[in-house]
TrEMBL record:
Residue intervals of the N-acetyltransferase domain: 115-255
Native organism: Planosporangium thailandense
SUPFAM superfamilies: Acyl-CoA N-acyltransferases (Nat) (SSF55729)
Domain of life: Bacteria
InterPro entries (UniProt xref): Acyl_CoA_acyltransferase, GNAT_dom
Protein name listed in UniProt: GNAT family N-acetyltransferase
Amino acid sequence: MSALIQAHIRRTAAADRDTEQIGPFLATFSRESGNPFLNYAIPHGGARPTRDDVAALVTAYSRRGLIPRLEYLPKLAPDVEAALLAGGFTVTDRLPLMACADGGVTDQPVPDDIELVTPATDQEFRDMINAQREAFGEAEPTGDADVAGYRRQLAAGGLAVLARHAVTGEPAGGGICTPISDGVGEIGGIAVRAAFRNRGVGAAITAYLTREAHRAGAATAFLTPAGEPQERIYRRVGFDTIDEVVFVSRSVAGS
């Protein structure tokens, strides 16, 4: 399952980004954003990068003004971390990889004053993206390119949900799922604005997206919680830890 998930991550990252093969690394570069979480490399399974491979990877990101960064499942490429650390990289996080099989979702109530809708208009996409960015503490403004990117993802089979106040329409949060491939889909961007937290909105968004992913053909949906509070929410929905994801980066581009 870990190998299938890593392959899915690699395909999804490459689908709407520029890519460059650098030694055993697939480097991906967003066409629309310098956000580090949209610009990262993934090693091939069993990769054994050389010092020159690591240096070339740094150069590829630095010449674009980006922070050299990787996201991957370390058990599938156990020799990569040491090579990166020797090249000046730092492990910035290790997070659990959680999965939920088809039929494994536990129902989560949607608060009475909240509705979950699939964004369709430009404003609904903007509301979802703005809610996500506010919840994640990101200051980057939402532009037409962001809306277009989400529309492309949905057109390719992805999923999205906007949580909003049922009466006022005020955005509460949102989340997405990547297009399903080989029976796998990634749930991501689960976010709830501060004013709507601690009411079960995040759990409701997660359960909704996971069920929709299964209906769309995912035998397994997976996600990566940002911390223990999120991990508890996802466990309540029906996710279990099956592996880990490591995040590795150089602190300053070109350093």
